[in-house]
Design goal:
Layout: H1 2-6, H2 10-17, H3 41-58, E1 84-87, H4 104-110, H5 127-140, H6 142-156, H7 162-176, H8 183-196, H9 199-215, H10 224-232, E2 236-242, E3 247-252, H11 258-269, E4 277-283, E5 286-289, H12 301-314, E6 325-330, H13 343-358, H14 367-382, H15 388-398, H16 401-407, H17 409-423, H18 432-446, E7 453-457, E8 459-461, E9 471-475, E10 479-485, E11 492-499, E12 503-512, E13 520-527, E14 532-538, H19 541-559, E15 563-564, E16 571-572
Parallel strand pairs: 2-6
Antiparallel strand pairs: 1-5, 2-3, 4-5, 4-6, 7-9, 8-14, 9-10, 10-11, 12-13, 13-14, 15-16
Organism: Branchiostoma floridae (Florida lancelet)
Keywords: Actin-binding, Cytoplasm, Repeat
Main location: cytoplasm
Length: about 575
């Protein structure tokens, strides 16, 4: 084993692969060419600029030393990834935990998916900027990854400065959390870590590299939160706000994906069915959905935080001054959803409905529905004993402000009282948890389209379909719809509506991919009535998976109808 590992020593690797007679040892000199062979002139120039930045970060050369940066550009990282900006205009209260509209604002934002342009910049100055510069090139350019790790290992070999070595291992840890080198160099790096890393960095660096190899390359450089945690080699704690106002801290690392975070949080709060729950990150008056779009589960939570921090910097803030919040709420129901079986999930959705109804995200058809919702809410929160005085105290928090202003609090107290007496005659003993389940079931039935997941459509064809403007496909447990930007440019209109009971099959195939861009898929939907609809979109895996699961459930229920149980009308598959 010792002889086998010796083949991956950095010294041996440098002798075999370094160009220009360079050895494996530390130096304060400037490179005249990259350590490794790079085909692209852009990569060759970037390698020299990364070398200077590494030296300055480690303190091997002074920041005041003038070294010409020819490119004068940041690594061309896609800032937006596949996130959608969701407008938060429905309440005018930017701090509201319910200000997370998935209505028209979401649909409009989803069809305006532009990638931010990268400005020309001067060489990085602060430590965070240097790290972003180095890791950014490693994320963007696969050929540069081996070069960056080689430069770091060279500067950590026979380095006489304790401070420089400390900064070097800190930087290597950050890189290990963002991108991994080739298979060969990964073995060299691991052997180097095992033989040269200080005790406090040995297992830490190894685990970070292992996780990155497992979960893939990041999309953005480390945010301030990650930078600070890695500097102290402490766990990264992310605070998640639930819809019942609880704040739960979850331990993550640089490689944690959105899917992993959802599973970890669900286990921590005992959520049984976490399908359709999504994370939303808010900053200023913007809300970004972390699960809308293609390849959602592969996004890293640190990339989302890095994105909002960069947005804050664009507004003139430093990374440490950017304030953001992470929320967890129900985005879409599955046809199998049973609110009676998961009390934790039902309670979270109930609180989401309470806030959403108050602030206008969800709307009832008439005053009677508002009164019924208020009556059920009062029963859940206060029990079977109701009085006019008790309703007066809470009605302001139950009913939307517009309705209170139009009809007055007294009207809603009387309407709620009448509805309460009809729903809960004397002797009623129904549990508050079952009443929450009733409201969730009603929301699932009435507001199916508001609980949809959206996918950007590039092109579409089918009988009677002619898209003139940007459009999105919306999928919920009942139907597939296509929402097109209206002719006026305000809001959306329904261009296609297909009940899932009419869907016969769904399929996709890759149509083309331009180097450096996301692949386009042709996504086909065949209906039982004959028409076939074809969509062109990025990475249609998620919409295909959702529709196959949803349509399969509907087919199951056609062949095995569900029957209500005697206990509480719960549906169960035969």
């Amino acid at each position: 084993m010792g002889e086998f590992l010796a083949d991956y020593s950095f010294n041996t690797f440098a002798l075999r692969h370094f160009m220009g007679g360079k050895n494996h040892s530390f130096t304060k000199e400037q490179l005249k060419q990259p350590l490794l062979k790079l085909k692209s002139e852009d990569d060759q120039q970037a390698a020299l600029e990364v070398w200077v930045t590494i030296q300055k970060f480690m303190g091997d050369v002074a920041d005041t030393d003038v070294v010409e940066f020819i490119s004068r550009k940041k690594p061309p990282i896609k800032r937006r990834m596949s996130f959608r900006n969701f407008g938060a205009k429905i309440t005018g209260k930017k701090s509201s935990k319910y200000d997370l509209s998935t209505d028209n604002a979401a649909k409009e934002a989803a069809v305006n998916n532009e990638v931010a342009q990268q400005p020309e910049v001067l060489p990085p100055t602060s430590g965070v900027e240097k790290v972003a510069f180095i890791t950014g090139y490693g994320i963007y350019s696969k050929p540069l990854r081996d070069e960056i790790y080689s430069q770091l290992m060279k500067q950590l070999s026979d380095n006489p400065s304790e401070r420089s070595r400390e900064r070097g291992w800190f930087l290597l840890s950050l890189c290990a959390g963002c991108f991994a080198p080739s298979s060969l160099v990964t073995k060299v790096v691991r052997y180097f870590i095992s033989g040269h890393a200080p005790p406090e960095y040995s297992l830490y660096c190894e685990e970070r590299l292992r996780r990155t190899c497992s979960n893939g390359t990041r999309s953005l450089p480390p945010p301030q939160l990650e930078y600070n945690a890695v500097k102290r080699r402490r766990p990264i704690l992310v605070a998640v706000t639930l819809m019942d106002e609880r704040v739960v801290k979850v331990e993550v690392d640089s490689a944690t994906t959105i899917r992993e975070l959802r599973i970890q949080l669900s286990e921590k709060i005992s959520l049984l069915d976490h399908f359709g729950f999504a994370f939303y990150i808010t900053m200023f008056d913007q809300t970004i959905s972390l699960t809308s779009g293609s390849a959602q589960w592969e996004h890293h939570i640190m990339d989302a935080i890095s994105h909002v921090e960069q947005t804050g910097r664009d507004e003139g803030l430093s990374g440490k001054d950017v304030q953001w919040d992470l929320f967890f709420r129900k985005e879409v129901f599955g046809p199998w959803h049973d609110p009676y079986k998961d009390p934790v999930g039902t309670t979270l959705i109930y609180h989401q409905l309470v806030g959403g109804l108050k602030y206008g995200e969800y709307k009832c058809q008439d005053d009677a529905e508002y009164a019924e919702f208020s009556a059920r809410r009062f029963y859940i929160e206060h029990g079977s004993s109701v009085s006019e005085e008790g309703l007066i105290e809470v009605i302001q928090t139950y009913v939307p402000d517009k309705l209170l202003k139009r009809l007055g609090a007294g009207y809603w107290v009387n309407a709620t009282m009448d509805s309460f007496k009809k729903l809960y005659p004397d002797g009623t003993t129904v549990s508050s948890q079952d009443e929450k389940a009733v409201l969730v079931q009603q929301a699932m039935d009435k507001w199916a389209q508001l609980f949809s997941r959206f996918f950007v459509i590039k092109k579409m064809s089918g009988p009677g379909i002619t898209l003139k403007r940007s459009a999105v496909a919306a999928v919920n447990w009942k139907e597939l719809s296509v929402l097109e930007e209206s002719d006026s440019g305000r809001g959306t209109k329904v261009a296609l509506l297909v009940p899932l009971t009419d869907v016969k099959s769904v399929s996709k195939r890759n149509v083309f991919q331009i180097r450096g861009t996301e692949s386009d898929d042709e996504f086909n939907v065949k209906t039982t009535r004959g028409p076939k609809f074809t969509f062109i979109m990025n990475n249609a895996d998620e919409i295909q998976e959702m529709l196959q699961a949803f349509v399969g459930r509907h087919i199951l229920e056609i062949h095995h109808p569900v029957q209500p149980t005697e206990e509480h009308g719960e549906e169960s598959a035969a």
